[in-house]
Amino acid sequence: MRESELFSNGAVYHVYNRGADRRNIFLTESDRTRFCKGMIAFNERGRCEPNSISHVRHPSVSANPCVDIMAYCLMPNHFHLMLKQRETNGISEFMHRLGGGYAKYFNRTNERKGVLFAGAYKIKRVTTDAQFQHLPRYIHLNPLELAGMNYKLGPIAWQDAERFLNDYRWSSYRHYAGLECQLFIRNEEIIEETSEGSHREFLRGWVERDWKTLDSFDKKIFG
């Protein structure tokens, strides 16, 4: 079975990858900016080649994207994406350009050779309402690890967590929270008709509970 046949139009997927040998794949703010530019510039069939956005200051958001980017988070050595495929081969094409283009940029910038990622990107289909509801929460709380707020150690004060997430620029949380308009994010299905503050309250409800329970819950619904 070809890779493209694994993905269905209209289906939602959790796509992620990390650096080979768990090495950091984002070393500077410029690296993270370049990856985010790639998420915008490469999200259209035949739009541009993977290494053609180096001098594009502000890529325009496509009116006909291959995928809907519903949520994302960049961590030092890995990334998470929540994607909905809009057209046949959309995810395959988008991820080939995004990952390949970034790896070429990273190697050129750091004067290195060899693989950057730990193999092909990993992908899991979102098949239940619980997964659809909680995947953005899982993605958006990821950066708390960088602040030493480890969910495996116990509950976290929401005031501290929110302060850190509000300042963390490299995820779609700020868009969900109404702090920044990221035009390439399509989260209407997730937010539906609720207010911008509702996602914050949803995260708060999970951050302030026993996170050991949350860890078990995530393993149960995400596998």
List keywords for this structure.
223 residues, alpha+beta, Alpha-Beta Plaits, 2 domains, four-stranded antiparallel beta sheet, 8 helices, 4 strands, 39% helix
Overview of this structure, please?
The protein has 223 residues and is an alpha+beta fold. The protein has helices at residues 29-41, 90-109, 129-141, 158-167, 173-176, 188-191, 197-207, 211-222, and strands at residues 12-18, 67-75, 78-85, 122-125. Strands 2-3-1-4 form a four-stranded antiparallel beta sheet. The longest helix has 20 residues, at 90-109. The chain is globular and about 45 Å long. The mean pLDDT is 87.
Compact summary:
The chain has 223 residues and is α+β, with helices and mostly antiparallel strands. The chain has helices spanning 29-41, 90-109, 129-141, 158-167, 173-176, 188-191, 197-207, 211-222, and strands at residues 12-18, 67-75, 78-85, 122-125. The chain folds into two domains: 9-125, 2-Layer Sandwich (Alpha-Beta Plaits); 129-222, no CATH class.
